[in-house]
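Entry 14. Ran structure prediction on the chain below.
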Amino acid sequence: MIEEHVFTSAMATARFLALQKPEGTAFVIGEGGPAHGPPLQRLLVVDRDPDYVVVGEGRTFNLELVEAAVRMIHRGAKLIDTNLGSHCRRERHSPRLRRVGRAWLETATGVKAFSVGKPSPIMMRAARKELLLALRKPS
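Output, structure tokens:
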């Protein structure tokens, strides 16, 4: 598999948020994903006063993170989930924990999470555009 032919939910989320608010900020719950690597683009990961609270895959979800995220959402941060789907191929990540975490945040704040990842049409359009560009690059 060629890396440039892969487009993840985390990549879709980071790109979408960067387009929505260039140089925006995010508080990220989860391992890897939008918090690390090239998908970040101009999105700055912060611990306070973010523009977005992003819930990704991982096992790092705990009540301290939930409490911090609830406060941030109440102060105006938008709640974003990288993947509303329930399937996770990697055993070390728990989609159930992400769904529970998202549900806690939605219930505690009364705010429904917005998803840019699977199965969002936003992700599918972004992936089509990104992958077509990758296929056209000269080798």
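The chain has a mean pLDDT of 77. Will compare against last week's run tomorrow.
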